[in-house]
Structure formats: C-alpha cells, structure tokens
Amino acid sequence: MEPIWNERMLKVKDTIVVADLHIGYERELEEKGINIPDQAEDMIDSIGKMLKREGAERLIINGDLKHNIPKGSWQEYRDIPKAVDRWLKIVDEVHMIPGNHDGGIQRYLPSDVFIHESSGKVLEDIGYFHGHAIPSDKVLSTGKVVLAHVHPTVALFDSFKNKEKKECWIRLKYEWKGKSGEAVVMPHFNPLLGGTSVNIEEDPYLGPFLTNEKLIEEKIYLLDGTYLGERKDLIPDQGV
Is the pTM of this model over 0.85? Predict the structure, then answer.
C-alpha cells in the first residue's frame, strides 16, 4: 500500500486507488455565488494518465465519486459516466466502494462497474472502505485496510502562530472489534475541498473507525512524501 507522492493516489500491486473526487462540487459552490471552472475533466485526465503510466489493471474508487445529495446535478450525470467509460478503456476492472455522497450511484455508472457495500470490500487480501460506515469484520480481518472520508490535513504553525493547512496521508495501526492491523488514510482527490486538521483536538476525526480509541503510531506524511512525525507529537500547545 504505497502512496504515489504528489498524486493523491495509492498503488497496490497492479491497482490504483482514488477517493473523494466529489464530482459536481462546483454546482454547490455555484448556488452559493462562487463560480469556478469545472475540475472534473482535469481529474478524469489525471487518473487516466496515471493508470497508463503505472500499467494498472484495476481502479478502485474508495468513496464519494459524486458530491450532491440527495439529488445529483447535471454535471454528475454528464461527467461520471464519461469518466468511468474513459477509465475502462485503460483498465480491466473498476470497483466502486460507496461513500456517504454516493447514494444512488448505480444510476450514474455503466453496468460493468463492480459496486460493493459501504461496509467495504476485500480485494487481493486488502480491505477497502470509505470510512463513514462501520467496516465489515471481513475487511478488518485482513490486517491491512485503506480508507478515506476524512479529507485529512495537518495544521502547521509558524513562530507568529499563523496557521496553514496541508493535505496529508496517515499511516496507523489499529485494534478494533478484536481485530488489529495497519491502515492508510487517503487524502481527498478533489483539490477544491476543505479538510479535517487531524492534529487539532477541536477538529476531530470523522467516522466510526477513526473515532475508535485504539489507534496508535499515527504517522503523518505530506503529499510530497515528507514525514512530519506522529500525530500526537504534532498537536499544538493550547496557547496556539
């Protein structure tokens, strides 16, 4: 389970994993009076190029391919089928692990996409789940899991106590429901999205798995691979 540094993607053997594309997010911003160019084409193209570069045979979308709930926007109906059709010309399989924004996702996807339960799926001895729902015992029993959902960032402070949030990867060890193993928490793929500053106590983890108290050795890496240290050592003093 190795991140592809600077790319917001994970590589597992011949598989590429992405999460939290939130296609259609621009439409929510538009309703708030914020008009920005669509990001979908760049995301679709970036993933396609990586699939070709790495010679991938499988793509796993680990939740939140779409954004708007409960109803989708015209952008989702246009861009999601286009994206998956393009990726299926490169890889043999596309797997979808539904996230909390993916209600009714089957309406947007071609019939040859594998759609799994929100409790996760085991593929080649690794468990994948988005993170908003409780993972299945089968997923946890693998001892190696991949999740997303949190949109993890780390808050960095300078000597003047100015804060900057940087997107990050997290590697950790877990013990939960009698199962134990290693987990990787993925960053969000859509660069427009905000994130959870995982080292600030007032901005906690999201989802049942990461709110479990038996998480240890939570190692934080920036997108470029820079290792910052363990989460517990990056929590700022209360005066910051």
Answer: yes
